[in-house]
Amino acid sequence: MQQKERFGLTEEEQMLRDMVRRLAKEKIAAGAEERDRVGEYPYDMLELMKENGLMGVDFPEKYDGMEAGLLAHCIVVEELAKVDASVALIPSCQELGSLPIILAGNHEQKEKYLKPLSTGETLAAFGLTEAKGGSDVAALRTRAVRKGDKYIINGTKTFITNGGVADTYSVYAITDPDLPSHKGASVFIMEKGMPGFTVGKKEHKLGIRCSDTRELIFEDVEVPVENRLGEEGEGFHIMMKTLDFSRPSVAAQALGIAAGAFEYATQYAKERETFGKPIIRHQAIAFKLADMAMKITAARQLLYKTCDLLQAHVGKDLSRVPAEIIRHSSMSKAFCSDTAMATTIEAVQVLGGYGYISEYPVERMMRDAKITQIYEGTNEIQRIVIASTL
Length: 390
Ligand code: COS
Known about the structure:
globular, alpha+beta, 3 domains, binds coenzyme a persulfide, Butyryl-CoA Dehydrogenase, subunit A, domain 2, 4-stranded antiparallel sheet, Butyryl-Coa Dehydrogenase, subunit A, domain 1, 4-stranded mixed sheet, Butyryl-CoA Dehydrogenase, subunit A, domain 3
């Protein structure tokens, strides 16, 4: 039995957390403001992730991953997000884009695509959302028509993280429009450079500004049948399961943003003086910090419990994901991201005018926090999912 800390980390997980915390402090924090201002994909940070083995923490060992578990991945994402949520998105998006292959790929697909994804040699993207919406998955319209041993894919995907930098894409498309989408959709592994596959312009965003978000455009793209994940018609379920396993990673990113803003605001409140004492001694500020501390601690416990539940399900029959798992995944995503938003708004308030300028990190953290309430299912969708499992 491995020794556990009081909140449940094994020795290995604690060592990983401390290593990433050091890395974040020494090599990532200082450049965060500049990366946010420039808004270009941070290839130097990708190299740093690869050098430190952080791209495939939760990927199977058999396919060159570390297989340290979902909680270990979330710890990595949290520690990175404490200083830069965009850098945290590098391993987080790798996990999201690769999960359909991990969950539904066969041995050949994993050998070919998962191995280089595990090490970060290639980058992944998750192609689900379309311009008409991402919340109502059953209404998506990208079409795949089978012709012999190929599928011909037409359609457009929107708001795809890593859109312009990825090599391997998991793409959702309708294969039988006569069936309800829950039974008539499939997922395909697509590669950068396939004829007819182009990407649109880069989106300019409020936060996570150095991540690369684009449209994917498919015009008669020929995809070999062997690139289909699972059986034809399993696409909806593959994507739902992927989201069950990937939402904790967004929760971890949100938790990291919240914790980073809280730590900064607390330190500031101890040093900044008004009316003859540090502002942390004024009840108005002290109560804000107390509320942040409560929410962050609760959010972390919920996330860790969710990871444990999901981990216990790895390798089991995924055709029936238990309601408790689906519910916890959505609860941790919604709770951690609502915590990130509330905490960062208050952190800006604690810093007053300084909180509003880019020399101090909390305004960036407030902008970065917002997306965590929106992507991988809006928090309104999470509440629908939670309620549906009660
Ligand atoms: N995990 C596993 N299975 C799930 C599931 C989940 N989270 N959610 C639904 N399913 C299964 C259901 O069990 C049902 O299975 P059967 O066909 O065997 O009965 C099937 O999928 C259809 O479920 P449901 O009727 O609830 O489907 P809806 O079309 O009503 O979908 C939601 C509802 C909201 C759950 C779905 O559209 C969704 O998750 N939307 C958000 C998508 C998202 O996160 N987009 C962001 C893009 S990624 S950045």
